[in-house]
């Protein structure tokens, strides 16, 4: 199965568009886990076990692991392997970008070594920096468009020939998407731009960061972003779920927050 | 010393603007090295020993190492450590990009764990994705502007208020550069754009890929890119040097090519 087939199966089976962002920081996990052999993996596994019935996918953010050196990367690899034993597709937030054969080496790192099912890609370098990733037809390639941070206005909103840069990114990316495996990253903090991206890409799946800590609005996101079939969105929450509590009850709180987010999202779907 | 101080000292001491790109691929190194304990490090060390009197800096491209997993990353770490025993500053080509605390984690990976002196950064996400890197005042931060690949025309050349995107990137980046440690990546394949970037950033240092295999012209690069003081450029060559021969004579050939490039560059400097 391709990433998008796995994703939609999981979204339907669990009736959930929620993605749990595994931005796991050794300094923020509950202190009682620090005596474990691999505290980062132990934390991730506990979070996954608590939330897996209500989350359709997980998104580790690779710098959180890379900052811990090879040991952190090993914890990440174990996390991906564990998710795969549960048949859960995994997206890596890596925002990689390079051209041709060098892009292919990043694909080898992330798809080959780690086994991720999807990744995020930065489009600034253009066609020959995006196509090598899209060539992995069974993987999901989420291209940054209008991101959720304040600085997204600096370049992404600049208007060229009547359209902001992020819309050019969507249009050109779709023209390169011969395998139908391009998705887009669109911040929940920009609901009007989300509507514009949905208009340009009615059939695509969007990865939506910015819910929760960053202040994105769920109702506006659903209204403007949902695909006609009630899918087409991956709504990510990281800190709001994984750090809902820093005590012994962190798994219960994470479960509660995931369920709450799933149900709040589903209020705006016909499900 | 800051990166730029180290760099200029090395450029003056060796009378060389050459940077050797360590795009080391296990499949392309001479076969007789494969019996070594760490073939990638052995290759890099041999290349460094052969070229160090004529190259002022080295630029490993991190995906070449990451594609080999933790073992590859260990070879990279050894390479950086070896270059530091020789007092040579090292730039990592990583094209990283993320915001705020997440960007800081990439800085911890590359500056903290590996000890790199400078890195490349993709500006697509704007101010809060560039400033966290610039905050490392002793490090060099090379921001992508007009890159050397064909796809650079797709977005970087789009015109907003009479100026292409890459020029907006230069202007905004300079306005964020409170520590004076921003540099720019400008492809040798775009000499006219290089002149425009030099006009906007007369005091900055540019990292120039695209010489050699990618067809960049040295004369035009020097004419349009050289800073008034005869410095301000880091001219990278990767494959043209490190794979000049695939036989037992690979170090001699690498040395020859480095010396040749240094001297060709110096013909267009007043040195």
Give the arrangement of secondary structure elements.
The structure is a homodimer of 271-residue chains.
Chain A: H1 3-13, E1 18-22, H2 39-51, E2 57-60, H3 62-66, H4 69-85, E3 91-96, H5 100-113, E4 118-121, H6 127-134, E5 140-144, H7 152-155, E6 159-160, E7 163-164, H8 165-176, E8 182-185, H9 191-200, E9 206-208, H10 218-225, E10 233-237, H11 239-242, H12 250-266
Parallel strand pairs in A: 1-2, 1-10, 3-4, 4-5, 5-8, 8-9, 9-10
Antiparallel strand pairs in A: 6-7
Describe this entry's structure for a reader.
The structure is a homodimer of 271-residue chains. With 271 residues, chain A is an alpha/beta fold. The first copy, chain A, has one domain (3-266): Aldolase class I (TIM Barrel, Alpha-Beta Barrel), CATH 3.20.20.70. Chain A is built from 12 helices and 10 strands. Chain A has an 8-stranded parallel β-sheet. In chain A, strand 9 (206-208), helix 10 (218-225) and strand 10 (233-237) form a beta-alpha-beta unit. The model of chain A has no long low-confidence stretch (mean pLDDT 96). At the A-B interface, helix 3, helix 4, helix 5, helix 6 and helix 7 of A face helix 3, helix 4, helix 5, helix 6 and helix 7 of B.
Structure in a nutshell:
Helix content of chain A is 45%, strand content 15%. With 271 residues, chain A is an alpha/beta fold.
Shape, per Cα inertia axes of chain A: globular
Strand segment tally of chain A: 10
Q: For the record, give the distance between the C-alpha atoms at the N and C termini of chain A, rounded to a whole number.
A: 25 Å
For the biggest β-sheet of chain A, the strand order reads: 2-1-10-9-8-5-4-3
Biggest sheet features of chain A: 8 strands, parallel
The radius of gyration computed from the alpha-carbon positions of chain A, rounded to a whole number of angstroms, is: 18 Å
